[in-house]
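Example for tutorial group B:
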C-alpha cells in the first residue's frame, strides 16, 4: 500500500529530524534492518538446504518418488536464497568499503 503525498512528507520530516537529532543511531538503525534481512535469508536458506538433503536421503532409503521431487525442489529454492543473500552481503560490503575509502574532491 503506497503512502499518500502528505504521509510521505511527514515520514521524510520525521526521518530528517531523526538524522539531525542522533545521526549515529539513525545510521545504525538503517544498517540493522538491512543486515537482519540478509542474515535471516541466509539462515533460512541454510536450513532449507539441510531439509532438502534430508528429503533426498529419505528418497534414497525409501524410493518414494514424491520425497525425491520435494527434496530437489526444497534444495533448489534454498540454494537460490542462500546464493542471493550471499551476493547481496558481498555487494554491500564492497560498496561500503568503496564509500569509506573515497576522499572528497579538493575545494577550489
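The residue assignment follows.
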Amino acid at each position: 500500500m503506497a503512502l499518500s503525498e502528505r504521509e510521505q512528507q511527514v515520514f521524510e520530516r520525521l526521518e530528517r529530524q531523526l538524522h539531525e537529532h542522533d545521526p549515529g543511531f539513525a545510521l545504525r538503525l538503517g544498517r540493522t534492518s538491512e543486515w537482519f534481512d540478509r542474515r535471516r535469508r541466509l539462515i533460512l536458506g541454510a536450513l532449507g538446504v539441510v531439509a532438502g538433503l534430508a528429503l533426498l536421503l529419505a528418497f534414497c532409503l525409501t524410493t518414494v518418488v514424491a520425497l525425491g521431487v520435494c527434496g530437489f525442489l526444497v534444495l533448489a529454492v534454498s540454494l537460490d536464497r542462500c546464493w542471493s543473500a550471499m551476493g547481496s552481503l558481498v555487494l554491500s560490503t564492497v560498496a561500503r568499503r568503496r564509500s569509506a575509502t573515497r576522499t572528497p574532491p579538493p575545494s577550489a
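The chain has one domain: 10-98. Compare this with the pattern of hydrophobic and polar residues in the output above.
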